[in-house]
Amino acid sequence: MAHDLSALSPEYLAFWGEYQMPTLTTLRADGTPHVVPVGVTYDAGQRIARIITRKDSTKVKNILAAGPGGARVAVCQVDRGRWATLEGLARVRTDAETVADAVRRYAERYGRTPEPNPDRVMIEIAVTKALGRA
Prior knowledge:
Elements: E1 2-3, H1 10-15, E2 23-27, E3 33-37, E4 41-43, E5 48-54, H2 58-65, E6 71-79, E7 82-93, H3 96-110, E8 120-133
Antiparallel strand pairs: 1-8, 2-3, 2-6, 4-5, 5-8, 6-7, 7-8
């Protein structure tokens, strides 16, 4: 079920604030999906999902391989009969201020601040579609 990004329900938005372990799907060079668990935060006002990760991860490599325009990706979370998927265009961000903001948002959602990591980057997803039953 598709949702209007400008009118997401309070229940849908609350689901993206719960302690869940979503998955991120990127595409490998051969077109096959690479699906991994990630921590995600979603800012509905900006329509941006954020993931913090290491710069040498496969997901980052897959996004960078898509070129400067970014890569089509999806993040999804499921809890029994509730589910939500955000689709969009992902880019890798490396500037310290942006990464620090993503770490802060992660800490708010997941209740813990990750240890400092000089190899940390942020995957920024410009969300273009929301699906689900949350």
